[in-house]
Every structure is written in structure tokens, then in C-alpha cells.
């Protein structure tokens, strides 16, 4: 199996494309084996990019280019990843020989449009993603509400579920303990983001990702945080999110518009591995 490895702001993914391999099947054991950082290749997630079924199109009639299936490092499925889909976009552009392209990608969280500008000389791509419809997140369990107390927080769904918590300084958060505990209180798990303001239209963010733990960045988390911070009157519509792995930008959509996430994808390596 031929795989490429990429990272989006330190959030790393292994990508296997049917465009390069022919028919593939993904599974939880395969994802766990590949993502193991000691006995495998090591990554926060495994993405399979498969061919769409014949005749599948976007609502405007455009054909779907690739179907994204995502497994977290622990083998659990995830509906969507903002960093992961940017990495998939770069991998697909490389496989197709494209430098500048627009792709329609079907995810478990819905259809997404990617605009990819790839530089083969540096292995660095810039990718913008329309992040889909936004909806209310799950109800906050009583124990979580009790623990958070007077802190400002809310849940939101941007293709996957998030709880965003406002704090004075994200560096003071014991993310390993608090993030893991909060995730465990939600029946289906949840991504946990702590944010603090950095001035006009700028946020600091740290994240505990469902199925992966602490990661250096989270694209859907950056989107969720930007939307809620805008609703809370903390930022405008153009938001810069600063995470341990680097920065991404989010354009918060209006009443009818989808949010747009923009950030890099860095190609790391091409790998040929035995079937697992």
C-alpha cells in the first residue's frame, strides 16, 4: 500500500488514495496499526480517499472528486477533520499532478469544497475548505456544567461535536486531565477546546481531540471556536487562531454562508508499507 504522510500545523495524517492504489478498505485495526508511533508509521489519524460512486454529484451538479473516510489514532471513526481534509487535498493534488485545483470532497460530515494551491518544490500547500453547515452541539452533562461553573462555554457541531470553553490563559489549563475527563462525560465523546482572546480578531486555542488526545492543532476546533467567539462578541468575522502547531484563519459565515478554514498542509514523505 502506498501512503503519503502530511501534517497540518503539527496535526499529522497518513493518506492512502485509491487514485494511487486501486480499491482499498479501511478498518479500525488498520488505522491503529499504521498510526502507532512506535510500531507503525505514527500519526494522529488515517485517511482513506476513495473513488465516489458513479453519478454522485454536489447539489449544484458538480461531480464529487474523492470520498474521505477518517479514523483517529485509537481506531475510532471521525466525521470530519479540518487539518485532515487539507492534507487529503494536498495528497489528491499530488496524485493528480495539480498545482492549483478545486475539489469536491464527500465526508461523513457532509460535502466540502477544497481550493488547493500546491508547491511541489517545498512540499507546502495552501488549502481553503468550506466547512459545511453549523448546528447545535450535544447537551452538556450536569457534571461538566458543575465543574465548569461560571466559565463561559457552549457546544457546537461543525460536522463533528465540540465544546469550546473561554479561559483567561490557555497555558494554565491542565489539558491532559481536564480534556480527557470532559470527553469521557459525553456518551459519543467530544472535542474539547479552551480559548483565550489575544486582541482584535485573534484567539489562542489548545485542544483535546476525541480519539487522539492532545494535538498541536485542530481545524474543526478552530472553526468551532471562531464561530462561538464571534457569537459572544469577542471577534469579528475574520479570525486568526493561534495553536501550538501554528496559525489558521477562519472566515465566519453570515446567516446563510458556510465558514471557511484556511491553512497549510505540509507533505512529509511517501511510504510503501505491507498490507496491515
CATH fold topology of the largest domain: Diaminopimelate Epimerase, Chain A, domain 1
Total beta strand runs: 17
Element order: H for helix, E for strand: EEHHEEEHEEEEHEEHEEEHEEE
CATH homologous superfamily caption of the largest domain? Diaminopimelate Epimerase, Chain A, domain 1
Largest sheet: 8 strands, mixed, barrel
- Estimate the strand proportion: 35-45%
| Outline | globular
Number of helices, counting only DSSP H or I runs of 4 residues or more:
6
Could you state the oligomeric state of the chains shown?
single chain
Report Rg: 18 Å
Verbal overview:
- The chain is an alpha+beta fold.
- It folds into two domains: 2-131 and 262-272, Roll (Diaminopimelate Epimerase, Chain A, domain 1); 135-257, Diaminopimelate Epimerase, Chain A, domain 1.
- The protein has six helices and 17 strands.
- The chain has helices at 18-21, 28-35, 82-96, 142-148, 175-185, 219-231, and strands at residues 2-8, 11-17, 45-50, 66-72, 77-78, 100-107, 110-119, 124-130, 135-136, 153-157, 161-166, 191-197, 202-209, 213-215, 238-243, 246-251, 260-272.
- Strands 1-2-3-4-6-7-8-17 form an eight-stranded mixed β-barrel.
- Strand 4 (66-72) and strand 5 form a beta hairpin.
- The protein starts with a strand and ends with a strand.
Topology readout:
Elements: E1 2-8, E2 11-17, H1 18-21, H2 28-35, E3 45-50, E4 66-72, E5 77-78, H3 82-96, E6 100-107, E7 110-119, E8 124-130, E9 135-136, H4 142-148, E10 153-157, E11 161-166, H5 175-185, E12 191-197, E13 202-209, E14 213-215, H6 219-231, E15 238-243, E16 246-251, E17 260-272
Parallel strand pairs: 2-3, 4-6, 11-12, 13-15
Antiparallel strand pairs: 1-2, 1-17, 3-4, 4-5, 6-7, 7-8, 8-17, 9-10, 10-11, 12-13, 13-14, 15-16, 16-17
Amino acid at each position: 500500500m502506498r501512503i503519503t504522510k502530511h501534517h497540518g500545523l503539527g496535526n499529522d495524517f497518513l493518506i492512502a488514495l485509491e487514485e494511487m492504489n486501486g480499491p482499498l478498505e479501511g478498518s479500525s485495526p488498520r488505522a491503529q496499526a499504521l498510526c502507532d508511533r512506535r510500531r507503525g508509521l505514527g500519526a494522529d489519524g488515517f485517511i482513506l480517499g476513495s473513488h465516489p460512486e458513479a453519478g454522485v454529484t454536489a447539489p449544484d451538479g458538480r461531480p464529487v472528486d474523492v470520498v474521505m473516510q477518517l479514523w483517529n489514532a485509537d481506531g475510532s471513526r471521525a466525521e470530519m477533520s479540518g487539518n485532515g481534509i487539507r492534507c487529503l487535498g494536498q495528497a489528491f493534488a499530488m496524485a493528480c499532478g495539480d498545482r492549483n485545483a478545486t475539489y469536491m470532497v464527500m465526508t461523513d460530515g457532509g460535502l466540502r469544497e477544497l481550493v488547493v494551491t500546491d508547491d511541489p518544490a517545498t512540499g507546502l500547500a495552501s488549502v481553503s475548505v468550506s466547512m459545511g453547515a453549523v448546528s447545535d452541539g450535544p447537551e452538556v452533562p450536569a457534571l461538566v456544567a458543575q465543574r465548569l461553573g461560571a466559565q463561559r462555554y457552549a457546544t457546537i457541531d461543525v460536522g463533528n461535536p465540540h465544546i469550546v470553553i473561554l479561559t483567561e490563559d490557555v497555558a494554565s489549563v491542565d489539558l491532559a486531565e481536564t480534556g480527557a475527563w470532559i470527553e469521557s462525560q459525553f456518551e459519543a465523546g467530544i472535542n474539547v477546546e479552551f480559548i483565550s482572546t489575544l486582541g482584535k480578531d485573534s484567539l489562542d486555542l489548545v485542544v483535546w481531540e476525541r480519539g487522539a488526545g492532545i494535538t498541536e492543532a485542530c481545524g474543526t476546533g478552530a472553526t468551532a471556536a471562531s464561530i462561538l467567539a464571534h457569537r459572544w462578541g469577542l471577534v469579528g468575522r475574520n479570525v486568526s487562531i493561534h495553536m501550538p502547531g501554528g496559525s489558521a484563519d477562519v472566515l465566519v459565515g453570515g446567516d446563510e454562508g458556510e465558514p471557511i478554514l484556511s491553512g497549510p498542509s505540509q507533505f512529509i514523505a511517501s511510504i510503501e508499507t505491507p498490507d496491515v
